[in-house]
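Q: I'm a student working through a structural biology exercise. My instructor gave each of us a protein and asked us to get a predicted structure, then write a short paragraph describing it. Mine is Pectin acetylesterase. I'm not confident about reading structure output yet, so if you can add a plain explanation after the tokens, that would really help. Here is the sequence I was given:
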Amino acid sequence: HADFYNWNRVKIRYCDSASFAGDAFDKGTGLYFRGQRIWEEAIRHLLSIGMASADRALLTGCSAGGLAAILHCDQFGAFFAGRSTTVKCLADAGLFLDAVDVSGGRSLRSYYGDIVAMQGVAPHLPPTCTDHLDATSCFFPQNIIDNIKTPIFLLNAAYDVWQIEESLAPSKADPSRAWRACKFNRSACNASQINFLQDFREQMVASVRGFSGSKSNGLFINSCFAHCQSELPATWNGTPTIQNKRIAKSVGDWYFGRAEVKAIDCPYPCDNTCRNII
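A: Happy to help. First, here is the predicted structure for Pectin acetylesterase. I'll explain a few features afterward.
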């Protein structure tokens, strides 16, 4: 895209599920979790080889990387304190919700609780959250996005397929397999299941109401069955669109201050521009 085509791009890989926020040794497995240290050293190294003189910087991530962008956005901004660099963040498919699953439980909360405990994540979570909520709650973006000071853009599908498959209707929560067809094929969902998914969309929209009140933040929540839409040219600079504006144009307008972008799509099935995964 014309706004970002000549930028330097660095991709930092990880595989520990804690979004670069862990720092612990697990005696049971003999594993060291050092995501927070790796994150800090990676950024320091990039600053030392030229990023410190950048005019502009954008921290981005997709899925767990999107959550990492949310968790570390203000830390990233702090690395540029005293410099004239324009620093912002983009979280793609990182808006994981603390949602009730089809059995009435909270599958993702259970999973996140194990990660936070095993990897010693709590000390690295925003104190504006941990001063009144438990650490697991503060690993969920809905509880921290309102207090992020660095400008951040949230890009998310309202019917996030990863969350449908792994948070709302994982196999353990669906022993009768009533959701098996629906979660892999939206056209196989019955009316009750569609209503459940519409409720999930409403939770996502509600979770960003306070966040969207800040003029420095951006938002693009489309009504697609997708997960990660910034990494493929077809979705980044093609379709889907909201009010005829593509994702790349929306992010560019927000980053460069050309327009305020707070785009929330109408509910499924109104959007015929989607590139649905299921």
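A: Here are two points you could use in your paragraph. The chain has one domain: 24-264. Strands lie at 24-26, 31-33, 56-62, 86-92, 152-157, 218-222, 241-242, 245-246, 262-264. It's a good idea to check both against the output above yourself.
Q: Great, thank you!
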